[in-house]
């Protein structure tokens, strides 16, 4: 006979199995130096003993723990006196380089030590420079700290779901095992720009509770840590102030005595006399988040062993049964079946559109303690959860939503109806203040609500919902009946035809059974008389194919057609042009008369042409000779400019592009040469290009001397007009 296992034993076995799985998958760190980031606060403060850039806070109004400011104005190296500057090597301004002097002047043979005042001046300046070097080194280290905080800020913002930033204290060390070095207490903090303009990044306290870190004790050999429960109780009853060593030290002394008889608390400078020691040692740690599942499973197993009632949903998960099948096998009314097809049911309060599958999930969860839903991304799981939350809230229930990722909860919140969203209380990491604000807002609204008014509103909304459901049912039935009629047969000529058969017949014979275009009204008479009908059929043999094609074309827009007056005007213009053309072609050269006195040409005593003044002709010739012969593209520019519009704009765009290219080329030449070349004055470009090699040669040999300016003044003037900046 198969032995029956109790539900309590099954749940305990389930939790133990899950715990073993996570113990193997989670890497327990016992040496804090192995975390992604781990910095002692004392090390940071030692870099800035003046606390100008690195500051520590205790019980700060803004909640600051530590702030780091980037040094912006770095001091310059002290200037040496004129008497010693020629003797210094060129790299004396680099704080990373030790200064060197030139002992002997190679040109004059003078030694640096020949002048005692110069040696004294050098030593005085050297001491000033040493102080400057020390300050630059200090500021450089502080700048590196700021850069590390900047990187920490970016890394933590991008890994907020997987990582946690901690303030830790109470460093526990095993002197017999160098791998045991881990803080006993941690508290989650946040990092943010306190003042982005002044480059200040700060660590801020949060409303999270201080956590007792005990998981690394499992890696300690030959010793067992005791009284862990007493430490947790003492922690709850002790007020810990971050960065306040004096009050925290007393608490840490009690902690080490709780843990082991072979331990002691040490302050600065004290020697170790026991195997285990605890020091204050506050530090900043960035590490992967601890899932907390193992601690939760331990607490749950203890509660079950102490007689806690097992939740029904756990029992259902351990005894899978097909309980949901009976729900959907019962006969439903037509109205309910039609509503279910649209994802609706009178007893389910959906706040968003749903489908039949999502409706079934809501119905299943009403009949069972647990429902498991699986599906790939994008199948509507978040949408379904948002609908279920609205359904449960409408029933007056409280809903807890959990997720492995914080982002998933944020996405779900955005999916909720806007009127429900203010009721969401986020309880994930680092948002205690936001949670308190939302709770206060909800409480304030509850305090001003009149219960009777609320009940009246609920009754009114329920009545309105019932009317909507009734109207929807009627509309769905109407649509259903209309669609159902499409499946009924049509009797014609004593024979029954289905709609599908008729549609198939028309599709197969569409050339012979074309449907009359336009809407067909029932019981409407033929719009043609018998005579018109016969004439229409007779036209099939009278009209050619080309005429039918022409008749099938759409009629022109009447508003765009010419009026008769405009058309007549065009005809008259055509006649006038024809007459002018005829008159010009019919001119007889012999009938042309010249009137030299008046500079005129006459034809049949009619004036044809007035000879212009010779000065005007000469001016026109001078203008024509001053222009170079135009090429084809230039004629295109002139033509497009006359036409205007887009034709002209494309040339303007080309001109602008050429200007931009020339400017870019000039900028590039300046950056390539290291200087920007500016040419002043007016001269011929060809002359400049011709003389450039000579100018270059002169400049390479030391420039233009007095003799060059006298002998070759033109070349000198050209060089003076070119300036490099």
Distance between the termini: 102 Å
Structural class call reads: alpha+beta
**What is the count of helical runs?**
24
Overall mean pLDDT: 80
Q: Can you give the helix content as a percent range?
A: 40-55%
> Major sheet: size, sense and barrel closure?
7 strands, mixed
The overall strand count is 18
Relative strand content? 5-15%
Spans of at least 5 consecutive residues with low confidence:
322-329
Computed Rg = 49 Å
Gross geometry: flat
Pfam families: AAA_11
Protein name: AAA domain-containing protein
Keywords: Coiled coil
InterPro entries: DNA2/NAM7_AAA_11, P-loop_NTPase
Question: How would you portray this structure in words?
Answer:
Residues 451-485 form a coiled coil. Residues 355-489 form the DNA2/NAM7 helicase helicase domain. With 725 residues, the protein is an alpha+beta fold. Helix content is 48%, strand content 12%. It has 24 helices and 18 strands. Strands 1, 4, 5, 8, 9, 10 and 11 form a 7-stranded mixed beta sheet that branches. A hairpin with a 2-residue loop joins strand 15 (600-603) and strand 16 (606-610). The N and C termini lie far apart (102 Å). The relative contact order is 0.05. The model is unreliable at 322-329 (pLDDT under 50).
